[in-house]
Design a protein that fits this description.
alpha+beta, Structural Genomics Hypothetical 15.5 Kd Protein In mrcA-pckA Intergenic Region, Chain A, Alpha-Beta Plaits, 3 domains, four-stranded antiparallel β-sheet, 7 helices
C-alpha cells in the first residue's frame, strides 16, 4: 500500500496495481507511454497516491488490489501484449473484470499454459533468469529428430550470441519430445530446433514450475487452487 505522503518507485506502483510487471513498466516508461501529473515519466522516478498517473492515456486509480492468480490455456494466434487495445491480446481475449497481466511471454505461434496475475513481485521472481524456474514444453518437429540432436538440445547450444542453459529433454515419439527449460529467451525452442535443421510444427507449454496445464481447454482459464498458489509463492517469494 502506498500511503499518502509516502513514495514508491513508479514501476513498482504500476506492478502493484496490476497494470504490468516491473520490467514491462520500465519499457512503457522508456517508450514515453506513462505520464505523471501531465508530464512524461522517467525511469526510476518516485510517485505517491497524490500523483495522477496515466498509462497510454488511461488513469491508474485505486488501492493495491487483492492478489489474483490464474492459469490460462493460450491459443495459437493470441499475443501476450500488456496493451488491452492490442489486436488479439490475452487481455482483450479474456476481457476479465480484474486487471491482470501475463507472467512472461508465450510467442504468438505457440499455445499452452500462461499464468496471469496482478502480483508484480511474483511475476518478477518467475521471469528473472537468475532464479532458474522450470517451464516444460511439448514439441513436434517436421521430421524425425535424432538422439544426438536431442542430446544437443539438452546439453546447450549457441543461439543469439550465447550458450543456452542445460535442459531436460525426453523423446515421446519420432518427431515429438518434451523439453524443460530454466530460461526464456525470445523464441528459444524454435531457434534451437532451427539451428539443428528442424521446423517446429507444434509447441505447447504444459507446465510452469508446479502449475500444470492438464486438461484445461484451449482458450479457457481457471483460478489457481489454494495448494497451487501456496506452493508457487513458497517456491518464488521465499527464495532470495
Amino acid at each position: 500500500m502506498c500511503v499518502k505522503g509516502n513514495k514508491t518507485r513508479l514501476n513498482k506502483y504500476l506492478a502493484d496495481r496490476g497494470v504490468c510487471s516491473r520490467r514491462a513498466a520500465d519499457t512503457l516508461i522508456a517508450n514515453g507511454e506513462v505520464f505523471v501529473n501531465g508530464k512524461q515519466a522517467v525511469l526510476g522516478m518516485m510517485v505517491g497516491e497524490e500523483d495522477e498517473i496515466r498509462v497510454r492515456g488511461t488513469r491508474v486509480v485505486g488501492e493495491k488490489p487483492a492478489p489474483v492468480y490464474l492459469a490460462f490455456h493460450k491459443p495459437v494466434g493470441i499475443i501476450t501484449s500488456v496493451d488491452p487495445r492490442a489486436h488479439d491480446s490475452v487481455i482483450s481475449f479474456l476481457n476479465l473484470p480484474e486487471r491482470v497481466f501475463a507472467i512472461g511471454r508465450l510467442d504468438v505461434a505457440s499455445s499452452g499454459l500462461l499464468l496471469l496475475t496482478n502480483d508484480g513481485r511474483l511475476s518478477e521472481r518467475i521471469t528473472h533468469p537468475r532464479y532458474d524456474h522450470e517451464k516444460e514444453y511439448d514439441v513436434i518437429v517436421d521430421h524425425e529428430i535424432s538422439d544426438g540432436d536431442l542430446r544437443q538440445l539438452a546439453s546447450g547450444m549457441e543461439i543469439l550470441g550465447s550458450m543456452t542453459k542445460l535442459a531436460v529433454v525426453h523423446r515421446i515419439d519420432k518427431r515429438r519430445f518434451s523439453i524443460t527449460l530454466t530460461e526464456g529467451r525470445n523464441r528459444q525452442i524454435r531457434r534451437m530446433c532451427e539451428a539443428l535443421g528442424y521446423d517446429v510444427k507444434r509447441l505447447v507449454r504444459v507446465r510452469v514450475m508446479n502449475i500444470k496445464l492438464g486438461s484445461l481447454p484451449v482458450g479457457a482459464h481457471r483460478p489457481l487452487t489454494k495448494k497451487e498458489t501456496a506452493e508457487l509463492l513458497r517456491f518464488t517469494l521465499d527464495r532470495i
